[in-house]
Amino acid sequence: MKIGSARWPRLNNNGDIVATVDVNGTDQGGGGESSDDVALAVYSAADKSVHLIVKPGDKIPGGVYHGQESSRRTQGITDSGQVFFLAVREDKASDGTSPADGCYRWDPKTNTIDALLLGSTTVAGLGKVGGVTKNNNGCTGYHMGVSGDGHVLFDAVVDGVEGYLVATPPKQ
Questions:
Q1: Of 35, 13, 12, whose CA–CA distance to 21 is shortest?
Q2: How far apart are CA 72 and CA 77, in angstroms?
Q3: What is the 8-class DSSP label of residue 151?
Q4: Arithmetic mean of pLDDT, 94-113
Q5: CA distance readout (Å), 23 to 2, 19, 164, 166
Q6: Sign of CA pseudo-dihedral 85, 150, 130, 164
Q7: N or C: which end of the chain has fewer CB within 10 A?
Q8: Rounded to 5, what percent of the chain is helix, strand, coil?
Q9: pLDDT-based confidence at residue 157 (cuts at 50, 70, 90)
Q10: Full-model pTM
Q11: For 86, what's the count of Cα atoms within 13 Å in the CB-facing half-sphere?
């Protein structure tokens, strides 16, 4: 698959980079809001290679990947190379009008994607999650932060109230 422009990169302490990239023949340059033809790619500084993590049409937990949330700062990379990202799926959210969404993790050791949290689900001890991407079930924010050791911060609507969630990595 040919990758067009890359933008909104995030860097870890090892020089690895994750970025939103254009695919399917699109090339939006440094465009602000992205179209449907976006994917995620990671550059590995250790072996100087580029790996496409996910592209439109790929199966991911909860459904089929449609694209990144159409804002900046929707992905991050840990020092171990794990990539966390906010994605929009092809199916509809519980409000029937918004696309379904989730916060996902790509593991470079297994080359798999799992869900950290899916929108439109109930999480024990937390509550009913509306959306985690902008304009989905009342979510207006779009920022995401990922620390080198795997703490993840992102916007979400829980029980009708918008705020930030912090996911902490398991103790090693």
A1: 35
A2: 15
A3: -
A4: 88
A5: 6, 12, 31, 31
A6: negative
A7: C
A8: 0, 50, 50
A9: very high
A10: 0.90
A11: 27
